[in-house]
Structure formats: structure tokens, C-alpha cells
Design a protein that fits this description.
Elements (H helix, E strand, L loop, with lengths): L1 H24 L4 H16 L12 H11 L3 E2 L2 E2 L4 H15 L1 H5 L5 H23 L9 H30 L3 H33 L3 H34 L1 H4 L7 H15 L4 H12 L22 H18 L3 H8 L10 H18 L4 H11 L7 H12 L28
Helix pairs in contact: 1-4, 1-6, 1-7, 2-3, 2-4, 3-4, 3-6, 3-8, 4-6, 6-7, 7-8, 8-9, 11-12, 11-15, 11-17, 12-14, 12-15, 13-14, 15-16
């Protein structure tokens, strides 16, 4: 949490110093500041809070970066400096974020990132521009300068986002940073490009260029929202298919969701990236679907203690069912191979096998079930379970608040303990 306090403290210090400077010196180019402030506030009002996305307010971010890198306005030099940029961006973000703050949506990390990244861009550009360093720069050279500064700013924002996520979740920093950097190739690149284009357009055409060049980004934002909605519907469909085993009485209520939630936490701890985590989640939700093909159900759906050949037969049946549903082939492969010897399994199958066994064993062993189940898995690392997965599972369970279940509890569903006290594997 120290890193979290450092980031928030640095943002608060930058905001306070900028506000004090603006109060002392006044606001320069008030019309320009008002226009960009309105743009940023509108972008914040339309911030997407219905899902966890990498760039929830692309319009506000692009407007903030454009104002930070704004040189001339319709050919006339502007006079605002870096403190004014930070003050205008923060004020507009707070005004536009009032509905989100009122509804209790997380906003502090979002504002800290916005202040620090915009402040970085403004400090790199505005002092040199105001001193006339870029007077001889024109055409492609000036555009390349803005693009280079935006790339540096995007890299800084990716590091900040990964650091904040690491502090909040305790997931490994490296995979989080890789995900943020991969995200720069998508909506992140569109935001940076729009910020640069708006700054260049305002320099030539004035503030009338702002609404014109906002339209493509708004359309992109709508497309991303539709894509995310399709993915959410797809996941809900898979979750509904996974519940078929519960409705049929083959597995206890909530078993698939518990296995999926804990598997995701273990996958995060082992450094899996976004695409791998998606396959892991879908396969974990559907890992028991092969039991629907059995004539005689397995008692309580506990497959971990069945003979190896019977486990493989159920896994192959499950893979066949998954293939018929039209789910990605990678998910079917993981379901099919969850009962193979762990040295031959992909990482996702290793995780599901260990987590499924832990959930089944801890469920039937009474109050000491979680501890006994983990110890039993550790004893089985010689041949049944991957040692690195079992140790990761122990780390996840030992950290309070390190993982959260993906869905609220339903009737009859047991909460998995968030803390597990045990001696280290020796």
C-alpha cells in the first residue's frame, strides 16, 4: 500500500501546487481553457462505469492530452502553462465525475492517473513552447514531436495503471504491465492519435476543430462498448451452460463459479495474461460439463477421487460437449486435458485440476477442510498436481483480500475462506 500512497500523494501535491500557482497568477486564455474544460467534463460524464475497461473515458483523456500539448490556437500562440493545464483538467474531471462520485464508483485512482500523466505531458511541452523553442518546428517535425511526447505519456500511464492495480489486488506487476502495454495497441492508440490530431487541428483551425475531431473517438467508444456487451453476453451464456450440471444434480450449487473465481486468482498469481485468463475462466466454468453424459452420476460430483481413467473419460466427454456448443477450441482442449498427467497439461488445465480438487476436498472435510485439502494437494505434487500451482493456490488463500469471487453468493452456496493458516511445504 506504500506505493499506492506515493501515487496518490504525488497527484495531490501536483494538484495543490498547480491550483496555488493558478490562483496566484490567474487564468490565461480563458476561452481556450473553458472550451477544453467543457470537452473534458463531457468526456467524464460519459465515462463508462458499467464494466472494467482499460480506457473508460477516452474522450476526456484525449481532450486532456490535447490541452497539455496545445501550442498555437488558430495560428496565435497560447499563454497557458503546465500548472494551468493540471488545474483545468482536474477541475473539469471533478465536475464531470460528480455523478460517478455520488454513486460511489471508484474515482480516486482514475483522477490520480489523469493528474500525473497530463502533468507529465504538460511539463515536457509547455515550458519549452512558451520559451519559443518550437518556433522553427513545422509540419511533420512538429507532429512527430507531439506523437513522441504522447508515446512517453502513454508509457507512464501504463506503468501507473499497473502499479495501482498491483497495489489494489497484489497480482504480479509484470503481467499487469504487459496487459497495459498491449492495451496501448487498441483504444489507447486511438486516444493518443486523437489527442495529437486535436492539438494540431486547433493550432490551424481554432477551437471549432474540437467537436469535429471528437466524433471519430465517440464512434470508437460506442464500438468498444458494443464489443464488451457482446463479450459479457457470451460469458453469461457460458455460465448458464455451466449451471446445467447443478440443475441436473451432478454438482453442488455454485461449484463451477467457485472453481472459476479461484482459478482466475491462481492464474493471476502465476502471471497469465488477459487472453489466457479468459480461456482459463471459461474452461473452469465448464470443467464438469462432461458429467451430463454419465448414466450414473458421480456422488456429489466429486471427480477428484475417481480412478484416473474415469477422470479422463469424463474430461473427454466434457471436451466433446464444449466443442458442440461453439465455444473456442482452446477452451475444449483445456477441459479435455484437465485429467491428464500434470507434466503433459497446459497451465490452465493444471490450475483447474488443482483448484477443483481443493474445492471438492475442502467442502466435505468439515471446519478444517481448507487446511486439510491444501495439505493433501501438497502431498500429491509428486504425481497428481503441479507443485507450482499448489504453492500458488496456497499463496492466494493465505492473503486476505487477495482474491474475490466473481459473482455474489446464491442460496446454499458456501463461501471459500479468504485466509488459510498452514505451515509452508517442506
Amino acid at each position: 500500500m506504500n506505493a499506492l500512497r506515493i501515487v496518490h500523494g504525488a497527484a495531490a501535491l501536483a494538484a495543490a501546487a498547480s491550483l496555488a500557482d493558478v490562483l496566484w497568477t490567474g487564468v490565461a486564455d480563458r476561452g481556450v481553457a473553458l472550451a477544453f474544460g467543457v470537452l473534458i467534463a463531457v468526456g467524464e460524464l460519459t465515462r463508462w462505469s458499467g464494466a472494467q475497461v482499460r480506457q473508460a473515458a477516452p474522450l476526456a483523456t484525449a481532450g486532456s492530452l490535447s490541452y497539455a500539448l496545445l501550442g498555437p490556437d488558430a495560428g496565435h500562440p497560447t499563454l497557458h502553462d503546465a500548472p494551468q493545464v493540471v488545474t483545468v483538467v482536474l477541475t473539469a474531471s471533478l465536475l464531470g465525475g460528480v455523478p460517478h462520485i455520488w454513486c460511489g464508483r471508484p474515482t480516486l485512482d482514475h483522477l490520480a492517473r489523469r493528474v500525473l500523466t497530463v502533468g507529465f505531458a504538460a511539463v515536457c511541452f509547455q515550458p519549452l513552447f512558451n520559451r519559443g523553442v518550437f518556433e522553427t518546428w513545422s509540419g511533420p517535425a512538429y507532429a512527430l514531436l507531439l506523437v513522441a511526447l504522447l508515446v512517453l505519456t502513454a508509457l507512464c500511464d501504463a506503468v501507473l495503471a499497473a502499479a495501482l492495480a498491483h497495489c489494489r489486488t497484489r497480482w504480479p506487476f509484470g503481467p499487469l504491465l504487459r496487459e497495459e502495454l498491449r492495451g496501448l495497441l487498441g483504444i489507447g492508440s486511438a486516444v493518443c492519435a486523437t489527442g495529437a490530431v486535436m492539438a494540431l487541428a486547433v493550432a490551424v483551425a481554432g477551437l471549432w476543430a474540437l467537436p469535429v475531431f471528437c466524433l471519430p473517438l465517440l464512434l470508437t467508444q460506442l464500438s468498444v462498448r458494443r464489443y464488451a456487451a457482446v463479450r459479457a453476453t457470451y460469458r453469461q451464456t457460458i455460465a448458464s451452460l455451466a449451471r446445467a450440471t447443478e440443475i441436473a444434480g451432478c454438482t453442488p450449487a455454485g461449484h463451477a463459479r467457485r472453481v472459476a473465481a479461484l482459478s482466475l486468482a491462481v492464474g493471476r498469481d502465476l502471471g497469465l495474461i488477459e487472453g489466457e485468463l479468459t480461456v482459463l475462466e471459461y474452461a473452469a466454468l465448464m470443467h464438469d460439463i462432461g458429467q451430463l453424459s454419465l448414466v450414473d452420476p458421480v456422488p456429489a460430483g466429486a471427480t477428484a477421487d475417481l480412478p484416473a481413467e474415469e477422470q479422463r473419460r469424463i474430461a473427454l466427454l466434457g471436451g466433446a460437449v464444449v466443442r458442440q456448443t461453439g465455444v473456442a477450441a482452446a477452451v475444449a482442449v483445456v477441459v479435455e486435458r484437465q485429467a491428464d498427467p500434470y507434466r503433459e497439461q497446459p497451465v490452465a488445465a493444471r490450475i483447474i485440476r488443482a483448484v477443483n480438487a481443493y474445492e471438492e476436498k475442502s467442502r466435505v472435510a468439515g471446519p478444517e477442510g481448507p487446511l486439510r485439502a491444501l495439505e493433501e494437494l501438497r502431498l500429491g505434487t509428486a504425481g497428481d498436481y503441479a507443485p507450482e500451482v499448489v504453492e500458488s493456490l496456497g499463496r492466494v488463500l493465505a492473503q486476505p483480500g487477495a482474491w474475490r469471487r466473481s459473482a455474489p453468493a446464491e442460496g446454499g452456496e458456501r463461501e471459500i475462506p479468504h485466509r488459510l493458516t498452514s505451515r509452508p511445504a517442506g
